[in-house]
Amino acid sequence: MNGKVFVMLLGFAIVTGATFNLAKYAVDYFSAASAAGWRFGIAAIVMLFILLLQRKLKWGVIRKYAAIYALLGVIGIFGFNALFFFGMKLTSPLNGALIMATNPLVTTILSYFMLKTPITKRQTAGIIFALIGVILVLTHGSWEVIRTLSISKGDMLILLGNVCWALYGVLGRKYLKTSSSMETTTYTMIVGAACLVLLSLFSPSTQPLADVTISAWEAILFMALFTSVLGYLCWNRAMEMIGAAKTSIFFNLVPVVTMILSIITGTQVSIVQVLGTTMVILGVLTSSGFLKYQLIMKSTSKNA
C-alpha cells in the first residue's frame, strides 16, 4: 500500500471517528432533524457542484434510476441519518461508533438474504465475535439488561440506522448496475437532504439559529464537507486503488478514534466499552480475512 492511499484512509478514519463526537455536540444546539438537514443539505450541494464540474450529469441515467434513487435516498440518507442524529441525542459517541462499526457484517447478512451471496465460515465467526461485542455495549455487560431486554433507546435507534445504511448498500448493488458511485451518492443525497429539511420543519431546534454557537456551526460544516464529501471521495478512490477488502479494514479505526476523542473531551469510557470495541474489531477483521492473511504472511516469511 503506497503512502498516498494510507494517508487518505487514515484521514477517513479520523474524520469519521470524530463525526460521532461532533454529532453528539451538534444536537445540543440543533434538533436532530435540523442537524442532519443542514449537514446533508450542504453536502448535497457540494456533491452536485462536483458532478457538474466533471460534466457527468447524465439525464438518461437519472430518468432510468429515478425511482431507485428516491428509494435509496429515503432509506439510506434520510432514514439512516434521522435515526443516527436522534440516536446520538440519547447515547454516547463511542456506543454509536461501535454499533456502526458492525455495518460490514450487517451488510454481509443482508447480502445473503437479498443477493444470495454465500456466507463463509470465517464470516460466520466474525459475525459471532462482533455480535458479542455489540451485546456487551448495548447491555453494559449487565445480565439484568439482557434478561429484561431494557436496551437504551438511543442505541436501538443507531442499530436501526445501521440496518438502513446496510440496506442502502445492498439495494444499490442489486438495482444500480450502470450508475456510478458518484452519481448514486449525489442523487440519493439530494433526495435524502430534501426529506431531512422537511422533517426539520416539524422538529425545530430548541433555540433560534441566531443563538447557535460558532463551534456548533463548525461541527455541522466539518461533518458536511469532511465526512460526507471528502471522506466519501477518499474512500471510493482507495477502493479503486487497493480494492474493497483492504480498504474496509481501515473502518476498524473509527471506534478507536471515537474512543480517543471521548477520553480527550472528558467522556468516561468503561471497561465494557473497551471490551466491546475489541470484540467488534476482532469480528470485522476475522470476517474480512485480514487475520488469516497476516498469519499466512508470517508463515511465509519464516519459511523463506
Automatic annotation (TrEMBL):
Its main location: membrane. It comes from the Bacteria. Pfam families: EamA. It is found in: Cell membrane. One of its GO terms (cellular component) is plasma membrane. Residues 7-138, 153-286 form the EamA domain. It comes from Neobacillus vireti LMG 21834. The chain crosses the membrane at residues 5-23, 29-53, 65-88, 94-113, 125-143, 155-172, 184-202, 214-235, 247-265, 271-291. The keyword Transmembrane applies. This is Efflux transporter. The lineage of its organism: Bacteria, Bacillati, Bacillota, Bacilli, Bacillales. Keywords: Cell membrane, Membrane, Transmembrane, Transmembrane helix. Belongs to the EamA transporter family. SUPFAM superfamilies: Multidrug resistance efflux transporter EmrE (SSF103481). The keyword DNA damage does not apply. It is a multi-pass membrane protein. InterPro entries: AA-Vitamin_Transporters (IPR050638), EamA_dom (IPR000620), EmrE-like (IPR037185).
